[in-house]
Specification:
The protein has 230 residues and is mainly beta. It is 9% helix and 35% strand.
Length: 230
């Protein structure tokens, strides 16, 4: 993990994800849509990288847009459109097939000349009966497939800078370690569906008399509303 991003291989395409622990949605930038805007070969300049359907299970922009297109609006005004697709994740020599993730087929950020990005959402889905989009949880799918033992993730931080760098572990046990504190995820009273840890700063004290101050990000969760349609 480097600067809040992590690389994963889907159907032979190396995708550079933004890791979001406040979102439950995982999506890839569909290359057919991106290159329809910027021309053939433009995906090589996209920071996140593009996803294309494999020859064994082909698709194109027209067939994807013929499916049900979901629309999501973030609190900052950004709107993304996506469809769901079964993909294969390659981890070492293993192939984890039939993972259902979203393919981005529209984003308002391109109107401002900003690149779209791939997102790895690690938060559980909101317990909201009024939610119109049923989003499959990436972690739950890995647990169900028997690929990870626990519905959990951890980030072993080695560097704080503009973003977090270190080692991300999916499905690991949350055992207590020396010089660490475990914070439980809570549902704040001020948010209907958010899962968050409310904090403005964290100070970590070692067993010795000296202490080390660490910066912490205060994440009040990604607030958004969702609606159906294209």
């Amino acid at each position: 993990m480097k600067s809040n991003t992590v690389k994963m291989n889907f159907d032979g395409h190396l995708i550079n994800f933004d890791v979001d622990t406040a979102s439950h949605i995982t999506y890839l930038v569909y290359g057919g849509w991106y290159e329809s805007l910027y021309g053939r070969g433009s995906c090589k300049y996209l920071i996140s990288g593009c996803y294309f359907c494999p020859p064994t299970d082909p698709c194109d922009l027209d067939t994807l847009l013929a499916q049900k297109v979901e629309k999501l609006r973030y609190a900052d005004g950004e709107v993304v459109k996506f469809v769901y697709r079964n993909v294969t994740l390659k981890v070492g020599e293993r192939d984890i097939s039939s993972l259902r993730v979203a393919l981005l087929v529209g984003s308002s950020c391109t109107d401002d000349g900003v690149q779209p990005y791939a997102l790895l959402g690690l938060s559980p889905p909101p317990l909201n009966p009024e939610a119109e989009i049923e989003t499959p949880s990436f972690l739950k799918q890995l647990v169900k497939a028997g690929e990870i033992p626990h519905l959990a993730f951890s980030i072993h931080v080695s560097k704080f800078s503009v973003g977090i760098g270190g080692h991300m572990v999916l499905g690991g046990a949350t055992g207590q370690a020396n010089c660490t504190a475990i914070f439980s995820l809570v549902k704040p009273s001020w948010a209907k569906t958010a899962v968050a840890i409310a904090a403005s700063a964290v100070r970590v004290k070692r067993p010795s008399e000296n202490y080390q101050a660490m910066k912490a990000i205060r994440d009040c969760s990604t607030q958004h509303r969702v609606s159906e349609g294209s």
